[in-house]
Amino acid sequence: MSKPKVGFYWCAACGGCEEAIVDLNEDILKVVDAVDIVFWPVALDFKKEDVEKMQDKEMAVCFVNGAVRSSEQGEMAKLLRKKAGVLIAFGSCSHMGGIPGLANFTTKEAILENSYSQTPSTVNPEKTLPQESFKVKEGTLTLPSLWKTVKTLDQVVDVDYYLPGCPPPVDLINKALGAILEGKLPAKGTVLAPDKALCQDCPRKESKPEKLAIKEFKRPHEILIETDKCLLAQGLLCLGAVTRSGCGSVCINGNMPCTGCLGPTSHVIDYGAKALSSIASLVGSNDEAEIAAILDKIADPGGTFFRYSLPASLLHRTYQPAKEGGK
Amino acid sequence: MSDKLNTNKPWEPRIIAFFCNWCTYTAADLAGTARMVYAPNARVIRIMCSGRLDPQFILTALREGADGVLIGGCHPGDCHYQEGNYKALRRFTLLKRLLNEMGIEPERVRMEWIAASEGDRVQKVMNEMTEHIRKLGPLHLEPKAAAMAAHGAGAARQGAPV
Question: Containing H/E element for B111?
Fold first, then answer.
């Protein structure tokens, strides 16, 4: 019997998710024994045409990492959806928009202006911007277009499963591969990670006070962080209470607060709103002015609470009022 | 909201009001039984305590077509559950900052302490809020994005209560 075919692809991503697959170390040999990798642009020389030639659903599983924010990525996502039996959103960016999703705090125009004109290392007096098509003697050159809004994979195509994390923990990848090979996948739409909050698995759980009342938020560089005490109790903005477990508390063990890359549990619609709610309620004051002063230490609530999930949030992006007329 | 589909009518502010069971909702009841007249623009949703108000509810209301959200709770010190209204105040303070970052006027969300006996205050706040939202104009969050968010990360998870 021929081995099941598997593909990997990246959209708007940093490459860390590809690294996570390589981090399987020797276990990747078992994967290669069990499946045929038929598409993996980062590591193997297959082309888009090879995918186009496949029959529909010929690939048993395709892992797609990265957010979707260009016409090229949208096209590839649709093609891979067609050719894959099971499509898995791999990593925070395809799951919730991730770090590239922070672009939804600004506009496409501002991003281009900044990148091609404002950055100190850029010399571009004519303010040349990338063109989507350009006529030359030999014909017309084209580039994919950048979308106005960064999207999650499931906002572009139907997604079967999610492997969360920035990047997904090796342990979760291994478990997911195991489930796929044994044909023991759970219900469609499942996030392939434990459905409980990180605080429940936190090695510092015992040191979390019965009642937290934060009088001053601190940033990691401002204090000497104690290695065995609940980070929230030290005034650090740790999002473990609202974040899905499954990472093995790597950041906590590295003495850094959780930033929420695994996203919410299944009980939450909007991760950032829930995180904001959780942290705000811990403020140790009942006085309006004092509450405001304590919260002043959170310099960028949007970027802090929606660090990995802005495109997946209820607001999706900054508000851009509709043009004249409207509804 | 169904009236959103009726494009022939001139725009009227749509306000979702979350009133706590023990104070503000009772005050709204009082305003009703006293036959006080006030702007009919708010749809009131009764919650047990302003501390029950998850910021997700507010964002969902805005996403689904509300132009403003009004929150009513007990005066400080009067919470039926001791400190629910303080928790609401803390969340509200931070949420307003988030809305500002997201380009939505923070005044679209307003919090008021209204005791059970203050029916006249319900009348005053409802009228003020309606007029204020009228001045700000409608909030047009793209309905297409709404559909995407509804099916996006978070909501499509198994067993996720939406």
Answer: strand B109-113
> Around A122, how many Cα atoms within 13 Å sit in the side-chain half-sphere?
14
Determine, for residues B62 and A311 on separate chains, whether the beta-carbon distance falls below 8 Å.
no
In A, minimum Cα distance to B162 occurs at A269
Q: B12-157 sits in which CATH class?
A: alpha beta
In angstroms, rounded to a whole number, what is the distance separating the alpha carbons of residues A151 and A159?
A: 13
Buried b / exposed e across B83-96, counting CB within 10 Å, b at 16+? ebbbbbbbbbbbbb
Question: Other CB atoms closer than 10 Å to residue B152's CB: what's the count?
Answer: 27
Residue A7: its H or E element: strand A5-10
The residue behind tokens 């609470």 is A305
pLDDT tens for the 327 residues of chain A, in order: 689 999 999 999 999 999 999 888 888 888 889 999 999 999 999 999 999 999 999 999 999 999 999 999 999 999 999 999 999 999 999 999 999 999 999 999 999 999 999 999 999 999 899 899 999 999 999 999 999 999 999 999 999 999 999 999 999 999 999 999 898 999 999 999 999 999 999 999 999 999 999 999 999 999 999 999 999 999 999 999 999 999 999 999 999 999 999 999 999 999 999 999 999 999 999 999 999 999 999 999 999 999 999 999 999 999 987 654 433
* Residue ranges covered by each domain of chain B: 12-157
CB A87 within 8 A of CB A159: yes
ipTM: 0.91
Of B87, B102, B149, Cβ closest to residue A302: B102
> What are the φ/ψ torsions at residue B21 (nearest 5 degrees)?
-60, -40
Q: In chain A, whose CA is at the least distance from the CA of B55? A: A273
Partner residue opposite B158 with nearest CB, options A266, A313, A316: A266
The predicted model scores a pTM of 0.90
Burial A307-326 (b: 16+ CB within 10 A, else e): bbbbbbbbbbbbbeeeeeee
Angstrom distance (rounded) from CA A215 to CA B104: 28
Residues whose CB falls within 8 Å of the CB of residue A9, separated by 6 or more in sequence, listed in order: A39, A40, A41, A62, A63, A64, A65, A76, A80
Give CB contacts under 8 A, 24+ apart, made by A22-31.
Answer: A23/A170, A24/A170, A24/A173, A24/A174, A27/A170, A27/A174, A31/A6, A31/A177
